[in-house]
Design goal:
499 residues; alpha/beta; 9-stranded mixed β-sheet; 6-stranded parallel β-sheet; 20 helices
Length: 499
């Protein structure tokens, strides 16, 4: 141990393009709203930094305090940047203010997204250099929107005392979105055209650059959101053209399974469900099922297994398999309820089945948070046959409510669902291996068979599923291990608790 070692809190700045409750389009928002708070409980001094979008609810904007303002150099530009601060439930959130970039109707989808998030990344580095309360030991970046932070920090800020010992951790939430733009940005926006290392490591082909590639090359540690996805990223099928870099840097690549907010997703206290229940008293779940059948216009029959599917209606979710198998499932008397929005062809297909099968099948083409709670509570099985799934949250939430997941063995689904073993009784759900509709239907109907014929085994599976630990505390401790590996001179503030 270094003679300069100190026992103090690890200072972590969590950079993200979205965070609950301020801005959210997907799972990243949930992670950025929950993980830093868990890091605080694990002994870190954690804070979050994100853009100050005009879509942030006014009640939060009114409570922000101005901390600093300065100009951010971005190639030939010098753009204004304000730093606003809001402390919410004990966690500090900082907001990068620039109306020309962030006063928009939505978070993404603009012609200048590359420039907008290049500015955000440079502003984060500039804030660390200029604002004392934002000095940190670890800058934890997430997905392509913050991927330039490690590049800028290394190339422009190494001589700045506040920046020269900052380690960068980069988390890949979904490798499909990488931030790819024309190489004119190297000179016109990023200002790195005359730095060979940056130019070469950002370039992905003769005339394009890739933000995420830059982060993968420049970061001190790489993580992704499940152990299996960390392995899959090193394969051509899943790696989306970056598999070679993931293989090359596999010695600093970790897969850490995301958590869920177990306070929000708790059947014993959930105010959005008709009746609360717990592992000790499951009687309320039957009432939740009956009420859900009534609400969705399904036959109120406790002997029919109710299969729910909740989430985006896209090909990635394996819905082609569900469509192929639907007639067979209906013939066996299974009830199916689908909630979500997405691709037009998927929405139309499930609306068709809903009309065709009446009181056996219901599709709600909507985003409805309260209904999702009632479906998790009232379902018997959750169907999630994803083609790929970096982590997935639905299967974890379903298990909390004693709704057993049927999943394909990929990414976080494989890591979070233990398949049922009929010989030992072990398991928390059911799984199948291949993108094959017949294999999926066999697995689902096999689960229904247990529901119909072996209530004791079914109840035991529910108890095991509800006992699984998907708290953020577990993930936070794994991240703390990585931070301390990068900064061995900082003695752990509090010992890792037994899990």
């Amino acid at each position: 141990m270094s003679t300069n070692a100190k026992r103090r809190k690890m200072r972590v700045l969590f950079a993200s393009s979205e965070a609950v409750p301020f801005a959210k389009t997907g799972g990243l928002g949930d992670v950025a709203g929950s993980l830093p708070r868990a890091l605080k409980h694990a002994g870190a001094k954690a804070a979050v930094i994100l853009p100050k979008y005009s879509t942030i609810p006014q009640e939060y904007q009114d409570r922000m305090k101005h901390v600093a303002d300065f100009y951010v150099p971005l190639a030939w530009r010098n753009d204004y940047c304000g730093i606003e601060k809001l402390t919410l439930q004990g966690l500090d959130f900082y907001f990068v203010d620039n109306e020309s970039y962030f006063k928009r109707d939505s978070l993404y989808g603009y012609f200048d997204d590359g420039e907008r998030f290049a500015f955000f990344a440079k502003a984060v580095c500039e804030a660390i250099a200029r604002v004392p309360e934002l000095e940190c030991d670890v800058l934890h970046c997430n997905d392509w929107q913050t991927a330039l932070c490690p590049v800028f920090l290394r190339e422009f800020y190494r001589e700045v005392p506040a920046c020269n010992n900052v380690k960068c951790v980069f988390t890949v939430h979904n490798v499909k979105f990488q931030g790819q733009y024309g190489d004119k940005m190297l000179q016109d926006v990023l200002g790195v055209d005359d730095i060979p290392a940056a130019r070469d490591q950002l370039r992905c082909d003769a005339d394009s650059i890739n933000f995420m590639k830059g982060a993968l090359c420049y970061s001190d540690w790489l993580t992704t959101v499940s152990p299996s996805y960390a392995c899959e990223l090193q394969m051509p099928f899943f790696g989306e053209g970056l598999d070679g870099i993931f293989r090359r840097r596999s010695n600093i690549l970790s897969g850490i399974l995301n958590g869920i907010d177990q306070g929000i997703w708790n059947p014993a206290t959930d105010s959005m469900v008709p009746r609360n229940f717990s592992p000790k008293d499951m009687s309320g779940k039957a009432e939740c099922k009956r009420a859900l059948q009534e609400e969705l216009g399904l036959a109120q029959d406790p002997t029919r297994p109710l299969v729910v599917s909740i989430g985006r209606l896209t090909n990635q979710k394996g819905l082609g398999l569900v469509r192929y198998a639907m007639d067979g499932l209906m013939a066996r008397g299974v009830q199916v309820a689908v909630l979500g929005t997405g691709d037009a062809d998927q929405e139309e297909a499930f609306s068709y089945f809903s009309n065709k099968y009446g009181n056996q099948m219901c599709a709600r083409i909507a985003f409805d948070n309260a209904l999702s709670h009632r479906m998790y509570a009232g379902g018997d099985l959750l169907l999630m046959p994803s083609e790929f799934e970096p982590c997935g949250l639905s299967q974890m939430i379903a298990m909390r409510y004693g709704t057993l997941p049927v999943v394909r063995e990929t990414g976080g689904l494989r890591d979070s669902v233990q398949p049922y073993n009929k010989f030992t009784g072990e398991g928390t759900g059911f799984s199948f291996a291949n993108m094959n509709a017949d294999e999926m239907a066999d697995t689902l109907l096999g689960a229904c068979e247990i529901f119909w014929t072996d209530q004791k085994a079914w109840s035991q599976l529910q108890q095991q599923a509800m006992a699984a630990d998907f708290s953020w505390r577990r993930a936070a401790n794994d991240y703390m291990d990585i931070y301390h590996r990068l900064h061995p001179e900082i003695i752990r503030y509090n010992k890792r608790r037994d899990r």
